[in-house]
User: Fold this.
Amino acid sequence: MSEWRYWFAEQRGTLLALGIFVVMFIIYTANHPAGFTANVVQTAANKGVLLAFVAMAQTLVVITAGIDLSVGMIFLLTNCLASWIVVGTPMETALGVVAVLLVGALCGALNGAIVIYGRLQPIVATIATGAIYYGLALLLRPTPGGSVNEDLADALTTKLFGFMPASLVTLLAVVLVVWVPFSRSVYGRAAYASGSSEIAAYMSGMPIRRGKFMAYTLSGLLAAVGGLFLTFFTYTGEAAYASGSAYTLFSIAAVVLGGVSLFGGKGSLIGAIFGAFAFRTIGDLLFVFDFEPLWQPLFQGVVLLLAVSLGAFALFRVRNRLEWFG
Amino acid sequence: MSDTTTSGSQASRMPRFVRRFDPAVATAFGCILMLLVVGSIYSTSFLSPEYLLQQLKVASFLGVIATGMMLVVLLGQIDLSVPWVVSTGAMMACAAAAMGPLGGLLAIPFGVLCGVLIGLVNGFGVAYLRIPSMIITLATNAVAQGLMVVYTGGFSPQDSAPEAMRWLATGFLVPGVPNAVIVWAIIGAATVFALTRTTFGRSVYGIGNQERAAYLSGVDTRRIVLIAFAVAGGLSAFGGVLLAGYASKAAQSMGDAYLLPAIAAVVLGGTSILGGRGSYLGTVAGVILITLLQSILSVMQMPEAGRQITYGIVIVIMLLLYGRAPATR
Assistant:
């Protein structure tokens, strides 16, 4: 019995995110003119996975008690790159995909190297590298354009067997290939441990530097998967500053909704995925209730503000006033 | 940190004015001189008084915004709501001016007040709810953006800046010196006074060094943090008001270009991003450095992409030179 209690305590954030998402999605489909159909689910899934990938990227860094304000820009950069090189014969396309993923991982590794080996604050370092990635994206696509291998794009955004969105299957595959091995490895454990107490993890001889470096690198890789999917949906590349910063912002909201602690060491990628789906559904709710689209940014901003304020409930668990002042 | 103790023992043998000079500020001023030399190679008019005064005028908008950012960074926090607070200040001031003669009179205070209100929300979240500052300020940035999108209907606002705002940004009270520079000088002098001669300033440094210790020595740390964020919001909005006066209208994303430069100016001026250490002179140096860098990149006709990349690289390199945290031991 007590085993269950531990499991439940560990997964509480994730389960809460799942709960929020299910409730939101039921309200959404109940009010949608088409109702709960395969097409509605497919559209929702395709919009949701973009944010889910970026939120997963953010989670990996947040777990190490850092924050990545460049995820949105890596997402843009890989989108712009993919609109150049994911074209042509199947062989060329495959090479292009690999190259895009490598570039994403490289961006993440650069963030990691600057933060870990350069010992800079993640927030300033990633604002600066974000500017670099955005500049590179602009170099690649000064104006929106480009193309993508449409067969591959359609295959990954359609429905499998008539009901299962292929994008969700890809999401599951990425979780199984990237997250499960990492979180079970020594490096994953070290990333978690350094997020919860860097000194303690260091003292107990965990490979915290390599663990954190892996987390940053994989974060760039996941953001690149998101960038690829953006290209698959839009068939073009576009270096839109506002879109990049919005994705960075929303990824933080999704992470918080997904029960990942911004102070590090707590939470899972699965929670962040449901957090992202929930956040997207909240944004879409306005449309089914016939609100003017103009109100959407404000509504999302307020949801974001409330979501991050939820983290403040820790304040009420403080026993001693001194605990307020770190 | 070990390097502060060694430089301290060396410094005690040096004359006093050298001892007081921060190496980071010296580096920043050295870079400014270097940029001036490089600029004068590209263009002969680069060193003319008119051009330099023009640069100083452009720098003063960033200077006002960076002043607020510096206050917050000294606390060990950060304000990421700058982009839309700048836009809100500009749009609300122009909107008030469109209301009639009384609105025109109150345009500047109203714009600044809107910024103070957003700053108060930030400060309340950080000081009383203990939300990490980068999170709450990102959220208020999104809310401010949402409010402005609803207000303007998604288009650029039609209102134009009133005469008073244009005069404040581009007029000449003292012949030869643009008003914006005078405004920055006044705000800078007030900030230097507040930081070095008042209990508020001492408390800001104290909280940045060790909030718990400041609290235990009787400082109402939460109130100080609240005030600092409110002032930072007001200054960002005031920067927006000046910018609107300069461009004679407000625009949707006019603040986007100011977040990174404001943080960069503060950090390049030797203010520790962890708080508690830094001088206003350094921030002035950082602001001028950033403005000259921008100016040279535009003289070289570098496109936006190249500017962003250069910015990022310069900031990372300068941070690696003197912004590193101590290693885990």
